[in-house]
Amino acid sequence: PDSHQSDRFDRIFQQTLNHVNDTQLDAGQQMVALESGKDNLIETVLAIQKASQTMNMMIQVRNRLVEGYQEIFSQQI
After folding, report:
1. Least crowded by CB within 10 Å, which of 4, 13, 31, 32?
2. Could you report the per-residue pLDDT of 50-77, keeping only the tens digit for each?
3. Using one digit for the tens of pLDDT, what is the confidence trace for 26-52?
């Protein structure tokens, strides 16, 4: 059971990282397209905001994981 949960967590975490990366790449592509006149400002701003929000979410997840890790190692056995 623990191995299955660990595999599931790994898979979900990897999917989340991939999603964050995809939003960052999309925002970059939107900015390049805007600079070349092939995209509109509103879509670019939305892509940048989405990338920012997903990155902030990932930072919060990382912070929670670090807090949990520190709490586990600070407990006395």
Report:
1. 4
2. 999 999 999 999 999 999 999 988 887 6
3. 999 999 999 998 878 999 999 999 999
For residues 60 and 11, what is the distance between their CA atoms, to the nearest angstrom? 19
Residue entry with tokens 């890790």: 69
The Cα–Cα gap between 12 and 4 comes to 12
Q: Output the CA–CA distances (angstroms, integers) from residue 50 to 9, 38, 44, 61, 70, in the order listed.
A: 24, 20, 10, 17, 30
Name residue, tokens 């905001």: 49
Burial of 51 (0-12, 13-18, 19+ CB in 10 A): buried
User: Residue 2 pLDDT > 70, yes or no?
Assistant: no
